[in-house]
Amino acid sequence: MNFGMPYMGSKSKIAMSIVNILPNGKRLIDLFGGGGAITCCALYLHKYKKVMYNEFNPLCEKLFEDAIKGKYNEKIFTPKFITREEFNAHKDDDGYIKYICSFGNNGSAYMYSSDNENIKHIAQDFIVFNKWDDFLGKFIDKKLLVGKTINDRRMEFIKMIKQKQPKMAQIQQLCQWERLKQLERFNQLSNLEQLQRCERLKQLERFNQLSNLEQLQRWERLEFNCGSYEDYHYQEGDIVYCDPPYGGTAEYSDSFNYSKFLDWCASRPYEVFFSSYDKNYDKRFYKYWQEKKRVLLSKVGTDLKKIETLYTNKPRKQEIYVLEQMNLFEEDNN
Predict the structure, then answer these.
(1) In this predicted structure, what is the pLDDT of residue 334?
(2) What is the DSSP code (8-state) at residue 100?
(3) Which residues, other chains included, contact 180 with Cβ-Cβ below 8 Å and sequence gap of 6+?
(4) Parallel, antiparallel, or unpaired: how do β-strands 272-276 and 305-312 relate?
(5) Domains along the chain?
(6) pLDDT 10s digits, 32-56
């Protein structure tokens, strides 16, 4: 199951593993909230009474808060196509444009190449606004899509594209529309039994039918904060998790002093958990948990896998378990 909104370095695929392995406590502090995968997963699992989502970037924090409060629900929001010119003009003042319309959600480069921007524009206008362009006649039969809903047009469109020209199957991304479907995952934070029984679309429909009381109970568990990790003040019962921009990986749109962050972690009197790919860590930190992860934005292709490691600044019994498991892992790969 995926969690949170599209975001570079998202922990969506392994959020369940991370939240499950973290210790119990009163409140989970998602100190580098980003796309909110850990926050959404923690709310979904009901492991903590409270969850605090903190993000330093105000555009990202507002985007997440707006999304989780329903601003981008398909019943009230219709995504228009964002052109390259609009992206470059507003990527620094609009979080939706910056993160949802950027390549790999990195917040800096436009999501489409100049070669396919036009076809993406045509496809989205047809699916969202039912605006026909004769170019589409090369791939789909207009008559088969008359009178259908937006979602039905989207599914039928993708189906026909795959049948007639497999290389065009990537059209299923359809700019913001497909990505907004991912944003609506926030609306899946309802009852666990419901989520396990339903298909994704039905989950969204059930969420929208929740009573006001149920929604209030869920929002009371979630806190939003926009600020630096250095401004955080520990409270008894907090479990502090950090997912900072990793040192030595793809550049993020905002600069980050990784060494300073490590010094901060090492100096905390309370326990801090943080994620990293780094294999040769200094002796101030302890391995707590590890798992293989595919790196989607790798320069050498999408098959690159790295070891996602969860470190802590305090020794724990869990460390012994992790090291034993990693020894087995290394033996299997030799």
Answers:
(1) 41
(2) I
(3) 72, 74, 77, 79, 100
(4) antiparallel
(5) 12-56+189-332 (3.40.50.150), 101-183 (no CATH)
(6) 999 899 998 998 888 999 999 999 9
